[in-house]
Amino acid sequence: MARLGGSGIRSKSLNGYAPGAVQAVQKWFNEVKKDLKEGVKGIEDASADILLEALRPTFEKSLDLVPFLHGDLQASGFLEKGRGKGSPVFMGYARNGIPKYAIFVHEDLEAKHESPTQAKFLEQPVTEDLPEIKNRIRLAMRKQVITSLIRKKKG
Length: 155
Known about the structure:
This protein is mainly α. It has one domain (about 1-155). Helix content is about 55%, strand content about 10%. It has helices spanning about 20-65, 70-75, 100-105, 125-155, and strands spanning about 1-5, 10, 80, 90.
């Protein structure tokens, strides 16, 4: 009799029938678990790249919405990952508070801007794209696991 447990498959012979087959399935099951753990590790290693690429289309939308007078505010936009594995990703405008007026332009809903520029030039695209951002992350994670499994199989 075979029983699937939290740590794998445990086997007992049914009157001596097929214990080798159950052991073969258990070995295969443990290999699959190991492959999946490696796939998850691959996601962890690639998480900043995955997030960076998931946010890129949204950041590009925000660049179209940034009010443009002299170009300083638009030029202050950034989308980048931190240093090292598992680093966070940063997206925004006016790093270190430069230009100083950025927060006012972003928050002032009463200010008039030439179309298509507007206030909330970063917040709105992120809010609108959130379901798609999540989907891009989900697809990239799946792709990473599959790629990891294919590499393992070839290697």
